């Protein structure tokens, strides 16, 4: 199975909506666990990477850091 690609700061869509009604989450921490923040109510959730990748549908908005390169 191919790994899904996402980056820090991306807005992602999950398979199930949050109880507040929105389905968009911002990735705010990456590692073995992924911390994401609901864009509707601001609730933060920590998921293991494997569970996050199973539940993620797609990237809605890529992070703004994607086009930037280190200028030093």
Question: Can you give a write-up of this model?
Answer:
- The chain is mainly β.
- The chain has one domain (11-63).
- 10% of the residues lie in helices and 38% in strands.
- It has 1 helix and 5 strands.
- The protein has one helix at 49-55, and strands at 11-14, 24-29, 33-38, 44-48, 56-61.
- It has a 5-stranded antiparallel sheet with strand order 4-3-2-1-5.
- Strand 3 and strand 4 (44-48) form a beta hairpin.
- Pfam families: DUF951.
- This is DUF951 domain-containing protein.
Helices and strands in order:
Layout (H helix, E strand, L loop, with lengths): L10 E4 L9 E6 L3 E6 L5 E5 H7 E6 L11
Give the helix tally: 1
The string of secondary-structure elements, in order, is EEEEHE
Please state roughly what percent of the residues sit in beta strands, choosing from under 5%, 5-15%, 15-25%, 25-35%, 35-45% or over 45%.
35-45%
Strand tally, please? 5
What is the distance, rounded to the nearest whole angstrom, between the alpha carbons of the first and last residues?
A: 37 Å
Mean pLDDT: 86
The outline comes out as: globular
How does the major sheet shape up?
5 strands, antiparallel
How many separate domains make up the residues? 1
- Computed over alpha carbons, the radius of gyration is 13 Å
Percentage of residues in helical conformation:
under 10%
Strand order of the largest sheet: 4-3-2-1-5
Helix-strand category:
mainly beta
Q: Which residues sit in consecutive blocks of at least 5 with pLDDT less than 50?
A: none
Pfam families: DUF951
Organism: Melghirimyces profundicolus
Protein name: DUF951 domain-containing protein
């Amino acid at each position: 199975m191919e790994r899904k690609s996402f980056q820090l700061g991306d807005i992602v869509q999950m398979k199930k909506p949050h109880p507040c009604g929105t389905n968009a989450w911002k990735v705010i921490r990456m590692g073995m666990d992924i911390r994401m923040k609901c864009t509707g109510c601001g609730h933060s959730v920590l998921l293991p990477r494997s569970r996050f990748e199973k539940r993620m549908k797609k990237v809605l908005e890529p992070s703004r850091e994607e086009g930037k390169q280190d200028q030093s």
